Amino acid sequence: MILASTFTTGVTVLLVVYALVVLFFVVKGAIKIKNISDYAVGNILFSPYAVGLSLAAAMTSAATFVINPGFIANFGISGVLSYGIVLPIAATISLIVLTKSFRKHGQTVKALSLAQWIGTRYHSRNYSFFMALLSMLLITFIVLIVVAIVSVIATALDANPIFVLTGLVVFVFGYMMYGGANSMVYTNTLQALVMLVVGFILLFSGLEHFSEGIGGFFRKLADIDPLLAQPVNPESPLFRDYYEIIFAQLVIGIAIVVQPHIITKSLLLKKESDVNKFLFTAVTVELIFFFVVFAGLYARLAFPDLTLDGVPLRNDQIIPTYVVWLFSDTGVGAFVGLLVVLGLISAGMSTLEGLIQSVSTSITSDIVKPLVNKGMLKDHQLIFANKIAIVGLAMVTWVIARDQILNPNLSVAILAQNGVYAYFSAAFIPVIFGIFFKNIRTFIPFTASITAIVVHFTVYYGMGIMVESWGLDLGFFTKFVVGTVKNPAIAASTAIVVSTVVALVLMVFDKNKIQQS
Questions:
Q1: What is the CATH number of the domain that holds 292?
Q2: What string of DSSP letters covers 389-420?
Q3: Which residues contact 282 (CB under 8 A, 6 or more apart)?
Q4: What is the DSSP letter of 312?
Q5: Beta bridge partners of 308
Q6: Is 411 within 8 Å of 67 (Cβ atoms)?
Q7: Which residues are CB-neighbours of 350 under 8 A, at least 6 positions away?
Q8: Measured between alpha carbons, how far is 256 from 23 in angstroms, rounded to an integer?
Q9: Distance CA 442, CA 445 (A)
Q10: At residue 495, does pLDDT exceed 90?
Q11: End-to-end CA distance of the chain
């Protein structure tokens, strides 16, 4: 109890200092904002290394540091292969390939959002409006991150989670009304540095388990459960075969980059010569963040039956419990625990800021502006509209997050993954075709976007009903659509593949290939 009291006091001081630092950078960035473009892509000449760190932080959420390592602790090497190797490789290659081409078009048309980029690329305001509406699906991811941060803070402070939720929403959404891209690069850079420290702590925390070499490490895992040391874990809901581990994650990794808070980050760079420095920094740091999931194996070795003092550890408890347990007898446990709390908050806040900025910008530029006075709003009116959009996002987030906290039977992770995966499934073809093909008529990518949405939700929700009610046999695919826990990556990868085939077929058979304005 003495340690808990000391720890709680430390967390309180830490949160106050953290808030003051964030507010300092918000004020520093906000004083330079004159219009919605400044809010969306900034007007400060940032170092490419700072923008790279900002991207690495934005691509990483609390899920990367908490939830995914928990899955690895539960299911072993198969999870490391999927989340720590296949997904990162696909995502980083996709980031490198897409960034330069996307940036060139984004700079040419002065796009402030992904929806605007798509609309200008295909000369279609309706398409831009449609993608802006779909970006509302990203609110589910905002809710996930908010709930995760609330869980960390409420536990550390032993506080009422609804009070914490209210304070968090007011604080974060409040300062995002003013800082925008300028302040976000500052705060994301700071958060990324903290996350790097915590990431290295986790990665090096179990080196003693390699005293007998890599083979010895695998034997220790196999002694607990042979499946932990195998590349495939048929008893898991996420890593059952190579189709799920490799193919689905390759597709997801490639497509995940087209999320607006990721692919638009390169527009913060003002000089073309900075792009390679930006990409090198982002890729290097992001690979480290992704590989933090390996620490889940250390946690499993520490808690072979995934219990502590006879109490089962939930998935999101495993890594924080592991770190505090590991250092509690060394005299620095409280300090390391504080650092981990800060790292987990930073991991969540970095992505949360990017999502609020990108979604609110899309609402303002791609929904409000075209509807009000035929887009003839002045700069100060757009900035005000953007603040109203953020207030609306805050209210929706609070309502949904409160329900997730009070009614945990509904998985917030499932809610978030379905929303996010559905969105970037629909955005994949218009971005890819817009970058690599010329003279593509709008109906081709638009049909692909509609197809992706329909296929995603049909696979996730509908096929299981068909199998269980109609006796439909889908062969090896059947196991992916039945059961209480389903992998959203299966639905999204299927949607992306099907929508790609549809788009290619339409392009081949389209006789009039001149883009209509």
A1: 1.20.1730.10
A2: HHHHHHHHHHHHHHHHHH-TTS-HHHHHHHHH
A3: 51, 52, 53, 55, 56, 59, 95
A4: E
A5: 311
A6: no
A7: 54, 57, 58, 60, 61, 187, 188, 191, 192, 195
A8: 30
A9: 6
A10: yes
A11: 68
In whole angstroms, give the CA distance from residue 70 to residue 75: 9
The residue segments making up the domain with residue 421 are 2-509
**Among 308, 329, 330, which Cα is nearest to 320's?**
308
Tokens matching residue 303: 């808690």
In a domain, 516, yes or no: no
* Residue 483, CA atoms < 13 Å, CB-side half-sphere: 13
Q: What is the pLDDT of residues 365-377, one digit of tens each?
A: 777 777 775 556 6
CA of 412: how far to CAs of 355, 409, 416, in Å? 17, 9, 6
Going by C-beta distance under 8 Å and a sequence separation of 6 or more, which residues neighbour residue 265?
51, 54, 55, 58, 354
What's the one-letter identity of residue 109? V
CA 279 from centre of chain: 18
Could you tell me if residue 145 is inside a domain? yes
Domain count, the chain: 1
pTM equals: 0.82
Nearest residue to 306 via CA among 78, 70, 83, 66? 70
Residue in this structure with the two tokens 């290097």, named with its chain if needed:
284
Residue ranges of the alpha helices (H) in 437-487?
443-457, 463-470, 478-481
Closest to 351 measured CA to CA, from 70, 112, 64: 64
Which tokens go with 260?
Answer: 């607006």
**CA separation, residue 155 to residues 114, 329, 369 (Å):** 37, 21, 42
- Tokens standing for 465? 């009903």
Cβ-based neighbour number of residue 157 at 10 Å: 18
| Cα 181 to Cα 81: distance, rounded to the nearest angstrom | 34
Pair 85, 245: CB distance under 8 Å: no
**Could you tell me which residues are beta bridge partners of residue 238?**
none
Tell me, yes or no, whether 517 lies in a domain.
no
Q: How many CB atoms lie within 10 A of CB 64?
A: 22
Asked whether the beta carbons of 227 and 233 are under 8 A apart, the reply is yes
Q: What is the DSSP letter of 35?
A: S
- Reported as a single tens digit per residue, the pLDDT across 415-474 is 888 888 899 899 999 988 888 887 888 899 999 999 999 999 999 888 878 877 777 777
Distance CA(79)–CA(198), nearest Å, equals 21
Name the nearest CA neighbour of 88 among 109, 106, 72, 64.
64
Q: Which two tokens stand for residue 212?
A: 């007998």
Residue by residue, what is the 3-state secondary structure of 127-146? HHHHHHHHHHHHHHHHHHHH
Residue 515 lies in a domain: no
Q: Which two tokens stand for residue 407?
A: 């009614």
Cβ atoms within 10 A of the Cβ of 443, count?
A: 14
- What's the CA gap between 366 and 129, in Å, rounded? 6
- Residue-wise pLDDT for 269-310, tens only, equals 767 777 888 889 989 998 998 999 999 999 999 999 988 888
CB atoms inside a 10 Å sphere around CB 251: 22
Query: In this structure, are residues 172 and 349 in contact, taking their beta carbons and an 8 Å threshold?
Result: yes
Mode of pairing for the β-strands spanning 307-308 and 311-312: antiparallel
